[in-house]
Amino acid sequence: MRPFVLLGLLVGLAACEVVPVDPVGTTPATTQQNSAAPATRTSARSFVRVVNVLEPVAERECRTQTTNVNCDFNIVVDDRPGEPANAYQTLDRQGRPIIAFTLALIADAQNEDELAFVMGHEAAHHILGHIGRQQQNAVAGAVIFAGLATLSGGDASAVESAQRLGAQVGARSYSKDFELEADALGTIITHRAGYNPLRGAEFFTRIPDPGDKFLGTHPPNAARINTVRNTVAGL
Fold first, then answer.
1. Residue-wise over 107-143: b if at least 16 C-beta within 10 A, else e?
2. Quick one: which of 65, 120, 115, 110 has its CA closest to 89?
3. In what order do the strands lie in the sheet with 16-17?
4. pLDDT in tens, 125-169
5. How far apart are CA 226 and CA 115, in angstroms?
6. CA 202 to chain centre
7. Quick one: CA torsion of 58, 221, 103, 46, rounded to 10 degrees?
8. Cα(74)–Cα(98) distance, integer angstroms
């Protein structure tokens, strides 16, 4: 197996999205608020308030549930013009967890409960180790598919294509489960931060429903809302 090929595949898997948007190659940055319109400034203030309240709760939950994991969240704004409403969790080169929100998502949120829920959801991905688990699944899929292609007599190009397909299949095998796990823990984090996760989960009623596609990356919105409701009922 060519290690540089697999490395390239894993880079594309190292981000979690709230909506099906590919954030590969993004460089999170802070917002420039000086020239923002009044509505944008209001949204920015709401975002800052939520960060100040929820971040320490998420970090405390991270330290409680994990061992030898960097729980120092860096919550930033991806301020690239034209980016759609999106949030994602990734890691920097030192392994510090980053939660990034695009300007559009901050503006689209109808209340601070929605911002808090999305933030809690993304924090939960890190606490639950989803990036590492996704990459492990990708590696396993790439190895299996490349091995099958080799055994069937495929040339180098065919093996590389099989490897790429295997990584995609492996990464997506449990991605829906990861999203629901993050919804559940994100609900708890949101609640413990003093926000209303049920109100926050109304965010799902306004985003495109991915349905239940084979090897899709996100579960149906109804399943996500039910997960939030069931988690709240147990609090």
1. bbbebbbbbbbbbbbbbbbbbbebbebbbebbbbbbb
2. 120
3. 16-17, 87-91, 97-102, 74-78
4. 999 988 767 665 555 545 564 455 566 666 667 656 655 654 555
5. 19
6. 18
7. -50
8. 5
* Distance from C-alpha of 100 to C-alpha of 96, rounded to nearest angstrom: 13
Token pair for 74: 């860096």
Helix then strand count (H, E) for the chain reads 9, 4
The string of pLDDT tens digits covering residues 46-98 is 999 999 999 999 999 999 999 999 999 999 998 888 888 888 888 888 889 99
| Residue with the two structure tokens 């970090």 | 59
Placement of tokens 């147990």 in the chain: 234
**Which of these, 3, 120, 106, lies nearest to 56 by C-alpha position?**
120
The CA distance from 87 to 19, in Å, is 8
Gap between the Cα atoms of 83 and 187, Å rounded: 26
Instruction: State the DSSP string of 128-150.
Output: TTHHHHHHHHHHHHHHHHHHHHH
> Distance (Å, rounded) from C-alpha 62 to C-alpha 99?
14
Whole-angstrom Cα distance, residue 234 to residue 2?
47
Cβ pair 232, 120 in contact under 8 A: no
Q: Which pairing describes strands 87-91 and 97-102: parallel, antiparallel, or unpaired?
A: antiparallel
pLDDT cut 70: percent of the chain above it: 61
Residue 29: helix, strand or coil by DSSP?
strand
CA-nearest of 19, 10, 29, 41 to 98 is: 29
What is the C-alpha to C-alpha distance for residues 23 and 216, in angstroms, rounded to an integer?
A: 17
